Write a sequence for this structure.
């Protein structure tokens, strides 16, 4: 730690202003740092003056008269519960007291960055895996692979439509059953994810998807879609169907 | 015992009992006055602020819910009134009047005798005036902690700020006051 921080602590030299740990650190530092030790002497000198000033308490010249004046004013004023209090400072930052501790602040920031990093990394890895799988399947079916990235295809409506077309094409051209199961899973997984939150204008895509719903029951949970994801999709299935047929 | 009697006084005052309220005024006016005097640097204004404080207390006593100490609540009112008063007044002019530290014939090449009541009073005037030059939050923290002798927790409750904010402001305030004292000392030595 730098002398600047210790010099700040030197000013907090009264009871309860520094934690025992800070005291120990400061005392240890003062043994080795002549500059801070000098500063400490200067501060003690100023403290004596401040302390002496604090012992002189201003008091009203005539307390009885002041009481009398106050009581007169009170009697003339309206009764209790009739006024507006002056505004006080917000107390919200007291709730965030712990956040002022630098270590906590760094730790929280670190955890947030780490979690976000892991989340982004995991997402990217999944997207790449899907991309690779899809390209592999397209190659096996003798079709040209998509030039868009998985991300573009999954986030734009035209991209999703292309996925469907390609999925249909791949599906029609797939030679053996095993590969068919794989492509069902990879396509459906992405499309069903979109189904969880259908947007207006996506009915065509959803209808197309529902045509493929017959695949759905065949999918092996262990081997593709996560259980949680599947549960969510199943829960939404009824709502999705209702929405499509009410359109 | 004292706490109970204060509670009783407060409960009676909340119901509109003027005698109980008078007791409250008699027992607490000196605290309100000393805080106001240290904030404003003069007794006349402190007198007015004390009066205004108790009128406000009387009007708002029914809203006092005993979640904090009565003095904490009272100090908050005093500080807010003082801040409003300070905004209205031109503090710079006040600080340059003959009673200000720049013009006070203060110390001294010889060591200050801190037992001397006159010197202590003089020092109190100087330090109060220096405190008046601090930013509002530092001023409030410094006066409450160093001059009114309130604990860090109490200061944080009165001002509605965190304890760490109190400590940080306190450290800066003491450093500023110390610098000002050093400057004053250099001037008087010349």
């Amino acid at each position: 730690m730098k002398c600047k921080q210790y010099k700040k602590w030197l000013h907090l030299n009264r009871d309860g202003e520094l934690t025992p740990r800070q005291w120990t650190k400061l005392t240890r530092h003062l043994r080795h740092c002549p500059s801070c030790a000098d500063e400490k002497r200067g501060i003690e000198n100023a403290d004596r003056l401040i302390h002496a000033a604090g012992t002189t308490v201003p008091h009203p010249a005539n307390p009885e008269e002041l009481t009398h004046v106050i009581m007169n004013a009170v009697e003339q004023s309206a009764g209790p519960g009739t006024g507006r209090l002056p505004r006080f400072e917000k107390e919200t930052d007291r709730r965030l007291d712990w956040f002022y501790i630098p270590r906590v602040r760094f730790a929280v920031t670190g955890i947030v960055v780490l979690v976000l990093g892991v989340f982004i990394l995991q997402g990217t890895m999944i997207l790449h895996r899907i991309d690779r799988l899809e390209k592999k399947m397209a190659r096996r079916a003798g079709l040209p692979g998509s030039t868009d990235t998985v991300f573009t295809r999954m986030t734009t409506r035209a991209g999703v439509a292309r996925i469907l077309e390609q999925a249909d094409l791949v599906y029609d051209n797939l030679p053996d059953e095993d590969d068919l199961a794989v492509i069902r899973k990879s396509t459906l997984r992405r499309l069903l994810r979109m189904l969880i939150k259908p947007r207006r204008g996506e009915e065509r895509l959803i209808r197309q998807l529902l045509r493929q719903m017959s695949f759905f029951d065949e999918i092996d949970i262990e081997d593709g879609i996560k259980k949680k994801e599947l549960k969510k999709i199943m829960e939404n299935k009824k709502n999705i169907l209702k929405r499509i047929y009410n359109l | 015992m004292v706490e109970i009697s204060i509670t009783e006084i407060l409960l009676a005052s909340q119901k509109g009992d003027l005698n109980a309220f008078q007791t409250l005024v008699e027992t607490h006016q000196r605290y309100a006055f000393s805080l106001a005097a240290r904030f404003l640097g003069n007794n006349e204004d402190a007198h007015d602020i004390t009066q205004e404080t108790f009128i406000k207390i009387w009007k708002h006593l029914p809203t006092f819910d005993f979640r904090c100490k009565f003095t904490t609540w009272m100090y908050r009112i005093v500080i807010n009134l003082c801040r409003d008063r300070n905004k209205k007044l031109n503090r710079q002019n006040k600080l340059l009047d003959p009673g200000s530290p720049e013009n006070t014939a203060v110390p001294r090449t010889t060591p200050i005798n801190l037992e001397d009541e006159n010197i202590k009073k003089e020092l109190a005037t100087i330090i109060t005036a220096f405190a008046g030059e601090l930013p509002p939050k530092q001023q409030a923290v410094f006066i409450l902690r160093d001059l009114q002798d309130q604990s860090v927790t109490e200061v944080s409750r009165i001002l509605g700020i965190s304890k760490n904010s109190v400590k940080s402001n306190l450290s800066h305030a003491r450093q500023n006051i110390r610098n000002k004292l050093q400057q004053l000392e250099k001037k008087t030595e010349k």
